Amino acid sequence: MLEKVTMYQGKLRDLFATQIMQTCIAILLMISAITISWEITVRYHETAAAQTINAYLGIINTLILYIFAAEILLRIFAYGADYFKAPWNVFDFIVVGLSLITIGGFFQIIRTFRLFLFLRTFSIFPNLQFLILSLGQAIPKIISTALLLVLSIYIFAVWGVIEYALAFPEWFGDLPTAFSTIFHAVILEHTWSHIYARMVEVDPFVGFFIYPTIIILNFLILHMVVGVIINALHLQNVADQEHKKHSFILGWLTGKHKNPHDSPLSADTKIILHEIHKLEADLRSLRARSQKSPKLQNKQEEVIISD
Questions:
Q1: Is 181 in contact with 171 (CB distance < 8 Å)?
Q2: What is the CATH number of domain 129-244?
Q3: Cα–Cα dist 245/243, whole Å
Q4: How far is Cα 256 from Cα 241, in angstroms, rounded to an integer?
Q5: Quick check: 84 and 93 in contact, CB under 8 A?
Q6: Which numeric CATH code is attached to 2-124?
Q7: Share of the chain above pLDDT 70, in %
Q8: pLDDT digits over 78-129, tens only?
Q9: pLDDT tens-place string over residues 283-292
Q10: The pTM is what?
Q11: Residue scoring higher pLDDT (160 or 191)
Q12: How many whole angstroms separate alpha carbon 89 and alpha carbon 83?
């Protein structure tokens, strides 16, 4: 009995690991997103046709929810306690559980959180997984750069209040207003042209305030965030290539990979592995000959003795 259970668990794990299963889950999630949004759209229409459509959509959403619940139960059966070691599995379990509890009520909208489970299909798209990992590694540096940007905006906001609070109170009347003005101008760069065109009519030397603000905030600090993201992508790419190299070399040493030409290694490393492979083949050939030689000698001795 235990052997059958173990066999079924193995088959389920193999099934859940297939790309077909992940594609089916993604399709169900897409259908669920469409039907939920459609259901919300027609929910408050008073016509009979809208209410009929809403009823059918509710049945479809409930059926998909039950399918997801059955999927989770099967995964728990297949993986056991290991299922809850993955954060996305825990998130999946909580969302579906809340949806089952609140089914039929207003909080049925919570099922839209299943859309986040599209991240489970990242194994099908390695490039997306690569981008998410890179952004995750860049978040601490992005936060530091954002704090620097906020501090710089604060400094220029104080400068703007001191210089232009009386002349342009709608933009620099107080510190919060000035901070909001500069922040929006940094995010929406075209705003600077409108502000400059208005301010230069009153103060011809407003460029001494506007130009340093644009150069420091828009071109240096804001673009620094882009540089941090690009650097994170580069570092993640280097780490990914190193991992592939180490995995291939380890597989080659254990006999899983025999052809170094299909590897992510450099040309020199491929040549070295090829030579090592030839040496191993020569060594196996020598060992085979050495094992055969004593047998031949023993046969020759037996022939001599018999003569």
A1: yes
A2: 1.10.287.70
A3: 5
A4: 19
A5: yes
A6: 1.20.120.350
A7: 73
A8: 888 888 887 778 877 887 777 777 655 544 455 455 555 555 555 556 666 6
A9: 877 777 777 6
A10: 0.52
A11: 160
A12: 7
